[in-house]
Design goal:
mainly beta, globular, 52% strand, Cathepsin D, subunit A, domain 1
Length: 190
Amino acid sequence: MPFFLSSNEYGIIERHTYEEGRCDMSRIEIRMMEKYRRPIIRLYGMKALVDTGAVIPMLSMDAEELETKFRVKKISERHTIGGIGGETQGDVYRLEEFKIGELEYTPFDVFVPYEPSLKYPILLGAPLFYGMFYGFDTASNKFVIETNDVPLKREFRLHELRGQLFPQIDGVFVQDSSLFLSNMPFGLWV
């Protein structure tokens, strides 16, 4: 039986809940910003790029603005992360909560670069949707998330090991585990 939500700042079009046998699946559809022809949605009144190649989520704003919009705490400093756009430096903050439609991340660790970008203030990487199906319905201009048996309330943390950040969702490291294990100190067993 579908459950319809009214459109709000998230651009949620509708949310369906399925109960078939043991599977409890929610389908969340979020309207993409049509003029960009890219997977850009609106969150917290800002443009958010869904970047399937990104590993670390980013909030690109200065610390004062970050503290105004969210309940935050700085948890580590002076990190360098790289991607196709080059390297950037910044700090890691822990938000008490962060929502993407009906998905709620409590807590939510995020990288905040020292030089904010105005193009896409929020960058959402693939590890946020670990264990879920997600895709882009370009014909209907929707970002679609199907949660399968994954709960709508999750934890997202960033762990530092020898200068690198590793994402963890609900206690599971979701980056290349061989890279993580090769960086572990001698004598530490997993």
